[in-house]
Amino acid sequence: MPLLEVSGLRVAFPSPTRPLVALEGLDLTVEAGETVALVGESGSGKSVASLAIMGLLPAGTMVTGQVRLNGADVLAQPARERRARRGGGIAMVFQEPMTSLNPVLPIGRQIIEALPDDERRSRTAASARAVELLASVGLTAPERRLSEYPHQISGGMRQRVMIAIALASRPALIIADEPTTALDVTVQAQIVALLRQIQDESGTALLLVSHDLALVWQMARRVAVMYAGRIVEQASVEALFARPRHPYSAGLVGAIPRLGGGRAERLVEIPGLAPGLAERGPGCAFAPRCRQAAAICASPPPAHGIACHFAEAAR
Amino acid sequence: MTALLEISGLEKRFRLRGGRVLQAVAGVSLSIAPGEVLALVGESGCGKSTLGRCLLRLEEIDGGEIRFDGQRIDALRATAFRPLRQRIQMVFQDPYGSLDPRMTVAEILAEPLTSLGLVRNRHDAAPRVLELLDMVRMPRSCVAKKPHEFSGGQRQRIGIARALATRPDLLVCDEAVSALDVSVKAQIVNLLSDLRAELGLAMLFISHDLAIVERIADRVAVMYLGRIVETGDADAIFSSPGHPYTRGLLAAAPRIDAPFTTDGLLRGEPPDPAAPPQGCRFHTRCPQAVARCETDDPSPVPLVPGWSVACHFAANPVPEPMENP
User: Fold this and answer.
1) Mutation for A interface: B48, B148, B256, most A CBs within 10 A
2) Cβ-based contacts of A210 with chain B (< 8 Å)
3) Mutation site, A185, A219, A270, A290, interface B, largest B CB count within 10 A
4) Would you call B186 and A214 a contact, using CB atoms and an 8 Å cutoff?
5) Is residue B325's pLDDT more than 50?
6) Which residues does chain A have within 8 Å of residue B256's beta carbon, measured at their own beta carbons?
7) Domains of chain A: which residue ranges?
8) A187 CB near a chain B CB, below 8 Å?
């Protein structure tokens, strides 16, 4: 049984005319200890997917399908129970630590609040655990940090604190949504190293949500490429970079500037733009930008495997 | 060849609350030849954007000189600067924030021409507006639309068209592609390369993204806490970086052709620019710092003409295994 099993996850937002479908039947699994990346550009639905899995979408959002964690249906649970009270749940790390940390609470308290219930009973034991967590994410002088506030520390340290809070609940899965995007290059690399180290040591599974294929390459073994609310291709990271099979994945892989590529090499462009939520029809959403597009692309692409009418032919 | 832009000893300070002073640009000297692309790279807070803003007189400088086409422009009065203003234009990171949401594309593109008195009125600007849209590969039919009707990439094309309106010789691009999605970023980088070739534009390309910089720059200047720590040919700097900070930046740049390694990663984060370390400003993060680095501030040492490194070890580099050269 996979640790996380998402099947047929569909998310639609109400609008005056018709519901706007942000996510169209997402199927995804994450095994225990595995790192899977959900990669896509803005508007692809990757963040909506992570929020839906966490149960963090606003009330009124239409969410259907199944999210199972260790076999238990997470979407059916009331939101309060979903919080990882006993460990083994899902924790989240967001892009912007400054907006997801509480600015008026000391760092120590924010970590302690995330501890499982049985680790919070003794105040001294809880503080000791918070210090241990801060040390484990590489903060110097962790005892002193307990009483500091988020604005007193640097951006990189705030992201380390966010990771400590995520780890506090002893999760089986961490969802990290653009965990390095807001950071400087040298600090990004430090956070990547930290996340990899945590996985090696604790065996926590990671669902990495990002637009950054280079980050995906550094972190993940498997990757799901999203476009306009659908997963268009799932593959091992090596296979995706070596032989992308969906035309969008191929464009995305070609568009990444590679260090060492020199000046002569021209970046591969994907012409045009991704369609907005209201502009999506039943056919392949990538067709207007696709060099291979033909009449058949007006009909829905295959729901399983590579979401392209030509994927089999191209093999 | 005479430089198109020559900056020497440039200083810019900001007064902070509590009487502290932030020296954003601390004695920077740089030059850009006509048609040359110089990339200015560094992390947030290093002063690279402030330096760009100084060139357009969006900030008044506190010391040093800026010469454009041989003429000193930092001390010019606003009226005397105006004719030069059309020759230096800027492309901003956030095209949405920098385009007036109430104006149509035609108005946005005509504005620099009318405000600098290059055309009498918007009507006279119309042919140039269409030409500009062609240059940035936007359909002519979009002239009546407003910024909110476009995607981020399209808005950045309009931002570039506006910057090109006055036929500048120098374009200052401040993180011009940083906010864009991967597929669109490639479109804009290719567009800037094309325009540069077609128009012979010189650029100051301010960016933290080394993979993009390698794609577009002739020369690179690396900035750290208000100082240029290394400057030279892009090829040389990417293949054999001379300053330990440049090496750290390159080691940290994400790569998709090699396994992730922690080798060569810098420790810590850039210090508070309002309280830079004594001696070499980089010594607190430098893997090879010695006692001397804590007290002596290194001056730039020319390695070969056009390539200089501000490091005590620059002339006699400490041999180091190079990761990911």
Assistant:
1) B256
2) none
3) A185
4) no
5) no
6) 213-214, 217, 241, 256, 258
7) 4-84+211-314
8) yes
pLDDT reported for residue B36? 96
Structure ipTM over 0.85, yes or no = no
Q: Looking at chain B, which residue has its C-alpha nearest residue A252?
A: B183
Per CATH, the number for A4-84+211-314 is 3.40.50.300
Question: What ranges in chain A are assigned the alpha helix state H?
Answer: 46-54, 79-82, 97-100, 107-114, 117-120, 123-136, 142-145, 155-168, 185-202, 213-219, 237-242, 247-255, 311-314
A270 CB neighbours in chain B (<8 A) are: 183, 186-187
Residue A157 pLDDT exceeds 50: yes
Per residue in B22-56, pLDDT (tens digit) is 999 999 999 999 999 999 999 988 999 999 999 99
Put simply, the answer to whether B181 touches A42 (Cβ < 8 Å) is yes
> How far away is chain A from the Cα of B262, in angstroms, using its nearest Cα?
7
Q: Is B215 helix (H, G, I), strand (E, B) or coil?
A: helix
Domain membership flag for residue B292? yes
DSSP B280: S
Separation of alpha carbons A290 and A292, rounded Å:
5
Domain count, chain B: 1
Closest partner residue to A258 (CB to CB) among B154, B187, B211 is B211
CB contact at 8 A, B241 and B235: no
Asked, for residue B116, whether it belongs to a domain, the answer is no
CATH number (domain holding residue B301): 3.40.50.300
Nearest by CB to residue A269, choosing from B43, B187, B255, is: B187
B193 within domain boundaries: yes
CA dist., res. B324 & res. B251, Å (int):
7
pLDDT per position as a tens digit, A165-202: 999 999 999 999 999 888 888 888 999 999 999 998 98
Say if B119 falls within a structural domain.
Answer: no
| β-sheet with B202-207: strand ranges across | B88-91, B170-174, B202-207, B37-41, B219-224, B227-233, B307-309, B301-304
Residues of A in contact with B182 (CB under 8 A): 41, 211-213, 252, 255-256
Share of chain A above pLDDT 90, in %: 63
What angle (nearest 5°) sits at the alpha carbon of residue B287, between those of residues B284 and B291? 60
Q: Which domain holds residue B268?
A: 5-87+168-309
